[in-house]
User: Which sequence fits this backbone?
């Protein structure tokens, strides 16, 4: 019904940068919030950043000043620019979006996840 496809993960040295992308497709009437979560081995999934349809952004304290979330509404895509990466940023990063479908149902959708590995 609605799909999210993520890209941009990989291996980077500490201090480096990566940009994640997440494109939504399917029976979408409207996209509301778009967010990025991450889950490190042995840890619970945590919210990294969220961006509302109105453009308000919120960040986890651990990434403030280093990560930037943005979206292209025409492309139905959300981005996460990650700078000054640290080994503790190593995790699987998941995109999540809240949409209204063409049948006017509210739906929360997860991406498949993309691995980010930061070496020291």
Assistant:
């Amino acid at each position: 019904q609605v799909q999210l496809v993520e890209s941009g993960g990989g291996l980077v040295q500490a201090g480096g940068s990566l940009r994640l992308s997440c494109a939504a497709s399917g029976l979408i009437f409207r996209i509301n919030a778009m967010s990025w979560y991450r889950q490190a081995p042995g840890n619970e999934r945590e919210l990294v950043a969220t961006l509302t349809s109105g453009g308000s952004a919120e960040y986890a304290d651990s990434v403030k000043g280093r990560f930037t979330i943005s979206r292209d509404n025409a492309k139905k895509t959300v981005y996460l620019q990650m700078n000054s990466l640290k080994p503790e940023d190593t995790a699987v990063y998941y995109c999540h979006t809240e949409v209204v479908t063409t049948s006017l149902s509210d739906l929360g959708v997860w991406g498949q996840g993309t691995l980010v590995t930061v070496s020291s």
